[in-house]
Amino acid sequence: MGSVSDDGMYIYVCVCVCVFVFLPLFSLSSSLVCVRVHMSDEMFYCRGDKNSFGCTTNSLHSQNSIEKYESGEFEAGGYKWKLIFYPKGNTKKNAIDHISVYIAMSDTSSLQLGWEVYAVFRLFLLDQNKDKYFILQDSTGKEKRFHALKLEWGFDRFMPLKSFNDASNGYLLEDTCVFGAEVFVRKERICKGKGECLSMIKDAPSTKHLWRIENFSKLDQECYYSSVFVAGDQKWKIQLYPKGRRHGSGSHISLYLVLADSTTPAGSKIYADYTLRILDQVQARHLSGKGDYWFSETKKESGWARYISFSYLNQSGSGCILKDVCLVEAEVTVHGISSSM
């Protein structure tokens, strides 16, 4: 449908109505047969251009019920959408003693980087006694911005559970309820700026890896690597230059932590803090270097070119080398991952 703006230009608005039905399996009629997917005691099905969801009485009311239900996809304004229903409220939003209902964009993988969709929507719940809809929409009437970090909008406290379950209100009759959504896509745009998504890891665990280097005095290559170990979800290794590197060449050994994961996506960064130690095998007075760094595909290593001098390393009392064996330990904690949007 179209309307005329103040400057005489037509503005076209896309409209789609989706009906979201919750009902017991035994009430299905033969006309509701287009698509059927069984999941435990749940069932998805659709008819024509309407998307529906069916579930048994137990799945709606039992204490072991699934936290949320999602409708099948429907289309509005060239985009795919779905309804999300929390029959006992969205606990993450502290929606106690209420049902929660949301509209969400679905299958956005094909959209261009930086996409934004602005839409106005209304959500419905059918009063089956009076054949009228209870309608809820944003009080300001303003459009909502959907994007990669905000795929859903709706109402944490759509309706009190007491009102929803009261048969005299007509919202839940014979274990059947009917939801609907009306979506108006007003505009869309591509954000040209760059975006990053940062995921921080709460109470991130640390990982230790011990590298035993034998025949240390006979090392004649420029660089050596430990075996690969895993910290966080990434692969790492220790890098040693026994004759030194850069400004440590000829006077110090150089020691680094290296990101060894070849599957790191382009544009991704891993934030980690780490400790590299040369263990004192005599008195346990270990030498430690601590650092933190954003590792990436193009910046894979962090450490010290002048980690420890040859003179101290080779002192008999330092305990760094015993029976020509050097023990190097890495302790790594991955705290966060940043990826391009």
UniProtKB/TrEMBL annotation:
Keywords: Hydrolase
Protein origin, superkingdom: Eukaryota
Keyword Hydrolase: yes
Protein name: Ubiquitin carboxyl-terminal hydrolase 12
Organism: Melia azedarach
